[in-house]
């Protein structure tokens, strides 16, 4: 439904997008992730035909957005990040105008469709108030109503849940999932949980390059080549650790403190006396669980709990982005508009509080990340 | 064309939601009314006095009517949604032009009261110059509004757009003044471009086809350039 090929966009000497390629099938919801300024909005604007690409092509429903712009636009519904609406009109007037220009010309059909969409987005009670007087949440939903009004094959939603309250967010997510059954949806978001809840596939872009494209589940498994296991064991830590380290394919084992940090002997307060949490790192590709269980039982300690630790999307995101930054730092990409200055500009660090939960392997590259600030050349 | 009409009707609706349209219409009626009263009470049973002041009035009013049209959409970002809708760029431009023209025609209709007053209190006026005068007003308004729309396409700042429109219109209007310092053949060409000189015959009851063609060509050309400017956003590499 959407085919993006080798998309590149330059703003003067600044490359906003470089060689981005992906495609989205009908009935698929694609999540767009990336730090601020990564190129999410630029990509969406090119797909919708608002701005041209420097090179590369985009086809929507088989129509090239540059050559057959009008045809492509017939199949598109778009909600920009800023939710631009005509403040002086009411939702009814506005949607009537949008319906007309998107080709719903029959007046009975138009009325029915507007009523249906308003109903679905719960904006009936503000139907005749000026949009300028509506709250952000209502405006956001009027914007969504406008995007889905003509029942387009493709929906491009730039941060559709920003400014909504938790109940509305749940509602909109459900709506997007419903729409995703017979529409193609691309949505960008900062909320990583939203992606794992709503999206079939995820694209992570960083500084204009596509750095990951996969299903949320598959991303999780590829981001971690080795298995991380958390255990709760009753018994003396020294014997337990000795037992864990002798188990087959174990790369490392250590105590885990209450807050998830690797500690030396800090037992969690919530645990019964003599019980400790441990974290074990398997060798790449190996399943260490049964080996661990028998090793602990064999050492005479009591195994109370054993579970595989799955990194959250936050962990994956940070890991992917920092690996990318690291590769850039090592000169894997020839670029001169980026330079090391070692300062903290907070862009990549957004998810920091969650980072320590990451298993050692994934956390490692993060520690070595050199934060870079963009310098215009 | 249908889309252009949809855009036009949306623009008309937007005009009457904001106070600007009401202020402009009131201003228009007060000034034309004053000029009509002064000539009518002096025993003049014609509209020449009113038709004479309208170009100057329009010079001030038309930038105010058109400054919002594209500049505001560009500033608030609504242009992004308008240009990504399945609407041709010319439909957007022509639609906005027709919206402004619609308001202007409504304003012209309000002044029909003046000839009616003449008819009631001064006997049957000479209708020829009145009809030709209204035709001149329509053509003049089209030219002025197209320039205003063009200025609005250049910037996302309404005030700047109004200033640009005013400057262009002023130059076009007083172009004959500039002709005193240039070579005679250049002066002749400049004089032919002068909007004021093209408009004057209409108020005297003379409808010259070349004048009509001048105004229509002028309006068409300015709208065409405006469409190119709007399109340039899409195709600039």
Notes on the protein architecture:
The complex is a heterodimer of chains A (377) and B (237). Chain A has 377 residues and is α+β, with helices and mostly antiparallel strands. Chain A contains 12 helices and 17 strands. Chain A has a 6-stranded mixed sheet, sandwiched between helices. A 5-stranded antiparallel sheet of chain A has the order 13-12-14-11-15, with helices on one face. Chain A has a 4-stranded antiparallel sheet with strand order 2-1-4-5. Chain A is elongated. The two termini of chain A are 38 Å apart. With 237 residues, chain B is mostly helical. Chain B is 84% helix and 0% strand. The model of chain B has no long low-confidence stretch (mean pLDDT 90). At the A-B interface, helix 2 and helix 3 of A face helix 1, helix 4 and helix 12 of B.
Helix content of chain A: 25-40%
Shape of chain B: globular
State the separation between the terminal residues of chain A, measured CA to CA. Answer: 38 Å
Q: Considering DSSP H and I runs of 4 or more, what fraction of the residues of chain B is helical?
A: over 70%
Beta-strand proportion of chain B: under 5%
Nearest-angstrom radius of gyration of chain B?
A: 19 Å
Number of distinct helices of chain B: 12
Quick one: biggest sheet of chain B? none
Low-confidence stretches of chain B: none
Give the strand tally of chain A.
17
Class based on secondary structure composition and strand pairing of chain A: alpha+beta
Give the biggest beta sheet of chain A. Answer: 6 strands, mixed
Low-confidence runs of at least 5 consecutive residues of chain A: 259-268, 334-377
Average residue pLDDT of chain A? 79
Strand/helix succession of chain B: HHHHHHHHHHHH
The biggest chain-chain interface is: A-B, 32 and 27 residues
Mean pLDDT of chain B: 90
């Amino acid at each position: 439904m959407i085919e993006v090929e080798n998309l590149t966009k330059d703003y003067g000497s600044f490359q906003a997008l470089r060689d981005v390629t992906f495609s989205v099938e009908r009935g698929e919801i694609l999540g767009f992730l990336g730090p601020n300024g990564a190129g999410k909005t630029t990509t969406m604007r090119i797909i919708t035909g608002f701005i041209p690409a420097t090179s590369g092509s985009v086809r929507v429903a088989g129509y090239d957005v540059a050559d057959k712009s009008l045809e492509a636009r017939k199949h598109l519904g778009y909600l920009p990040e800023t939710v631009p609406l005509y403040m002086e009109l009411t939702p009814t007037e506005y949607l009537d105008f949008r319906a007309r220009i998107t080709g719903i010309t029959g007046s009975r059909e138009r009325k029915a469709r507007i009523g249906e969409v308003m109903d679905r987005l719960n904006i009936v009670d503000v139907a005749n108030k000026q949009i300028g007087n509506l709250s952000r949440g209502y405006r956001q939903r009027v914007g969504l109503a406008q995007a889905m009004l003509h029942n387009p094959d493709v929906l491009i939603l730039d941060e559709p849940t920003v400014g909504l309250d938790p109940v509305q967010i749940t509602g909109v997510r459900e709506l997007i999932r419903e729409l995703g059954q017979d529409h193609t949806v691309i949505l960008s978001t900062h909320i990583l949980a939203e992606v794992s809840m709503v999206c079939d596939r995820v694209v992570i872009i960083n500084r204009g390059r596509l750095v990951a494209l996969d299903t949320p589940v598959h991303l999780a498994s590829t981001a971690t080549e080795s298995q991380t296991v958390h255990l709760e064991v009753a018994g003396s830590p020294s014997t337990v650790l000795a037992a864990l380290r002798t188990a087959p394919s174990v790369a490392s084992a250590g105590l885990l403190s209450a807050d998830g940090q690797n500690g030396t002997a800090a037992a969690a307060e919530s645990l019964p006396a003599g019980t400790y949490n441990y974290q074990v790192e398997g060798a790449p590709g190996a399943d260490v669980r049964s080996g661990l269980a028998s090793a602990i039982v064999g050492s005479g300690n009591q195994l109370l709990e054993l579970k595989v630790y799955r990194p959250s999307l936050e962990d994956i995101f940070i890991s992917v982005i920092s690996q990318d930054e690291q590769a850039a730092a090592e000169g894997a990409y020839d670029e001169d508009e980026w330079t090391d200055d070692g300062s903290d500009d907070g862009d990549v660090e957004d998810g920091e509080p969650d980072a320590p939960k990451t298993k050692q392997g994934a956390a490692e590259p993060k520690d070595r990340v050199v934060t870079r600030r963009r310098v215009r050349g | 064309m249908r889309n252009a009409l949809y855009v036009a009707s949306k623009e008309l609706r937007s005009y009457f939601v904001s106070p600007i349209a009401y202020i402009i219409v009131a201003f228009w009626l007060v000034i034309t009314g004053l000029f009509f009263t002064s000539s009518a009470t002096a025993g003049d049973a014609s509209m020449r006095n009113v038709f004479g002041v309208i170009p100057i009035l329009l010079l001030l009013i038309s930038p105010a009517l058109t400054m919002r049209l594209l500049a505001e959409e560009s500033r608030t970002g609504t242009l992004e949604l308008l240009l990504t809708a399945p609407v041709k760029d010319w439909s957007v431009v022509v639609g906005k032009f027709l919206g402004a023209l619609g308001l202007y025609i409504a304003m012209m209709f309000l002044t029909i009261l003046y000839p009616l007053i003449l008819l009631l209190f001064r006997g049957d006026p000479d209708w020829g110059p009145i009809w030709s005068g209204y035709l001149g007003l329509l053509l003049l308004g089209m030219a002025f509004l197209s320039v205003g729309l063009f200025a609005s396409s250049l910037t996302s700042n309404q005030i700047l757009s109004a200033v640009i429109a005013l400057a262009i219109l002023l130059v076009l209007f007083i172009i004959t003044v500039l002709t005193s310092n240039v070579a005679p053949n250049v002066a002749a060409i400049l004089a032919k471009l002068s909007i004021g000189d093209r408009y004057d015959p209409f108020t005297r009851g003379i409808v010259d086809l070349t004048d009509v063609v001048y105004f229509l060509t002028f309006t068409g050309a300015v709208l065409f350039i405006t469409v190119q400017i709007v399109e340039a956003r899409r195709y600039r590499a």
